[in-house]
Amino acid sequence: MNILKPQRFLVCLLIFFMACNHAKTKSANSATKRGTYGYDVEFLKKHANKIVELHDENNRAKVLLSADYQGRVMTSTATGDTGASYGWINYELIASGKKKAQFNPFGGEERFWMGPEGGQYSIYFKKGDSFNIAHWQVPAIIDTVSYDVVSADNSKAVFSKAATLTNYSGTSFAIDIQRTISLLDKNEISKKLHTKVPDNVYGVGYETTSEIKNTGFVDWKKENGLLSIWLLGMMTPTNETKVIIPFKPVANAASLITRNYFGDVPPGRLQIRDSILFFTCDGKYRSKIGLSPLIAKSIAASFDFKKNVLTVILFPVDQNAMYVNSKWELQRWPYKGDVVNSYNDGPLADGTQLGPFYEIESSGSVKELRPGEAERYKQTTCHLQGDYQALRQFAKQLLGVDLDDLKR
């Protein structure tokens, strides 16, 4: 029999306990780090088939994409795997492997949708159906269909898919969809925002280009309905999250802000001061607001005072263009819709809730397209996290807002 010497025995015993402790620590980290980017990467690699990750050379700024969910940006971080994950992800729904009949809120901080949602040109309601939740149906091409990965590397990925859609009025659209997501470095973020990102603030940013092409044989005409590109960002709320949307200070600005999508927003949750709108997004009260292109600027933002995270969305605005109206009704003005929206999730009438999450949304204008023609829409998303005073000064320069005043 081979008997270990006391010294060898003690060394082996120490190695054994170190290995056990490492395994326990790894297990504990995996179980306790929900909310980090690394947790979300592990989760989605386990439950999805086609995951793409963009990252900078230091592996701090990262963006997680999924072809399974229509080339959407699932989440991102400015501070690596152990850093905060900015996108909201519906873990329960994804892990279940099940698909809901009407809509699957998988999450994702920028998902590709199309409009209009309501009205005579809606692609979410069949002809003759009432505009209510019982008849609402999200098209599969923007809900459950997996997209093809055309190309992907560390800095850019391209996704595509073909589809046919029919609107409420019976018009059919043969389309090709393409999504391109490009990572931005800190210098590019500063250039996009026209404001230098402070040295003691971490940042992650990306630009998406979404395209829909008319692949049919007939022209798309406004009298038959048109399609818009609609981007929705689902983020995780806290009790201290505020959405900030600057707008043009015109005389009738208040009348160009929609605040009754799901009933009037209570005054305590929506403040309009001079030329800036502040909207409480804590995931506790279902409400939505929107701004007309006649007053909207090309920027919307949110600030999470709990985590010191400033999120900024940049998008084009053309006040002379047509924007689809998505209200659930037959419309007198089907092309006088909003260009930017924000949604705060909350309990439904039956007490259930989709999230909680909050959204910042933007929509592209619509055009009449001949066969072979396409419309493209670009949006930039940036998350900045770090020193509060540095972010406070940055927000003053970028948005004209003092975060101290907003917090009070």
Structural overview:
The protein has about 400 residues and is α+β, with helices and mostly antiparallel strands. The chain has one domain (about 35-405): Beta-galactosidase, Chain A, domain 5, CATH 2.70.98.10. Helices cover about 15% and strands about 30% of the residues. The chain contains six helices and 19 strands. It has helices spanning about 5-30, 35-45, 90-95, 185-195, 390-400, 405; strands at about 50-55, 60-65, 70-75, 110-115, 150, 155-165, 170-185, 200-215, 230-235, 240-245, 255-260, 270-275, 275-280, 285-290, 300-305, 310-315, 340-345, 360-365, 375-385. The strands form three sheets. A ten-stranded antiparallel β-sheet has the order 5-6-7-8-19-16-15-10-13-12. The chain is globular, with a radius of gyration of 23 Å. The protein starts with 5 loop residues before the first helix and ends with a helix.
